[in-house]
Design a protein that fits this description.
The structure holds two protein chains of two kinds. By secondary structure, chain A is mostly helical. Chain A is built from four helices and no strands. By secondary structure, chain B is an all-alpha fold. Classes of the chains: A mainly alpha, B mainly alpha.
Chain lengths: ~70, ~220
């Protein structure tokens, strides 16, 4: 059951299987807590940020645009 | 499921790019380039070459934008261009990277430690023998969001490159699974397994953190 929780959260399970997971989780403390851990994991990952790209690379990419048909 | 086509946002953005809208282009560059650098680096030897690949990819995007037909999302289309260039460059360098190296050799690892479940000999085999730790029971003021962010970042840095990138695209950047599959040329199964493995590693790291702060 626990192996299905990721697919369940991703909406990757067919309706009947998703309903089966929900029914099980509502009666199983372990799987309910596991599901909460996964939700929190995804939420915390969502708070990551990307580094800015280096200024020289940014300049080169801007120059590419200005030199292109799109930027011309 | 319907094949994913360009969204109305994509259509607007493409029109802006074609019209020479520099701000729209730079915003797209800032959003996608960090991930593009990491993906390129999977296929070529050095960061410097990866940056050349990214540069070539954006030039390719600008040359091809007039022909973009919206049969995939714009970002998927951009990553297809990137991956093709990166692979060819890698081949020219004589570098061939086995999928197992990028994906990791631990993909058959279970999501939860098997010892958390009762064994086959038990009448309740498969049930939890020790319940997972309930993070919701940890007082909120003990949890440092910044520290958790750093911890997740460090965990991703230790993962095989493709595992980390699938998680970043899915859970950080919010791409749909289908976009990721097409962008990185993964099968449906591989994309899911990579994502689940990466999430497990991150979850385990967060679990250790919560257990530690709960004890202090």
């Amino acid at each position: 059951m626990v192996e299905l929780l990721n697919d369940y959260l991703d909406g990757a399970l067919p309706g009947s299987e998703a309903a089966h997971v929900e029914a099980h989780v509502s009666g199983c403390d372990g799987c309910e807590t596991a599901l909460a851990q996964l939700r929190e994991t995804i939420r915390r990952s969502g708070s990551l940020t990307e580094d800015q790209i280096p200024a020289d690379q940014r300049d080169l990419l801007l120059a590419a645009f200005r030199g292109s048909h799109a930027g011309a | 499921m319907e094949p994913l086509r360009a969204s109305s946002d994509d259509v607007t953005l493409v029109a802006r790019l074609r019209a020479g809208d520099e701000a729209a282009y730079m915003s797209l560059v800032e959003t996608l380039t960090p991930s593009m650098r990491r993906v390129a680096r999977m296929y070529v030897r050095t960061d410097a070459v990866a940056d050349e690949v990214v540069q070539d990819a954006w030039v390719g995007v600008l040359e091809g934008i007039g022909r973009f037909e919206g049969r995939s999302s714009l970002r998927t289309w951009i990553f297809r261009i990137l991956v093709n260039i990166a692979r060819n460059r890698g081949k020219r360098e004589g570098r061939s990277v086995a999928f197992a190296v990028l994906a990791g050799d631990d993909l058959d690892h279970p999501s939860w430690d098997p010892s958390a479940f009762l064994g086959a000999g038990d009448a309740s085999a498969g049930h939890w023998s020790s319940l997972p730790f309930d993070w919701r029971g940890v007082p909120e003021d003990r949890v440092e969001a910044g520290e958790l962010r750093r911890l997740i970042q460090e965990t991703l840095d230790t993962l095989p490159a493709m595992q980390a990138e699938v998680l970043r695209l899915r859970d950080v950047a919010g791409w749909r699974s289908e976009e990721i599959r097409n962008a990185l040329d993964l099968t449906d199964t591989n994309e899911r397994v990579l994502l689940h493995r990466a999430r497990t590693r991150v979850r385990e790291a967060i679990d250790r953190y919560y257990r530690t702060v709960d004890e202090t």
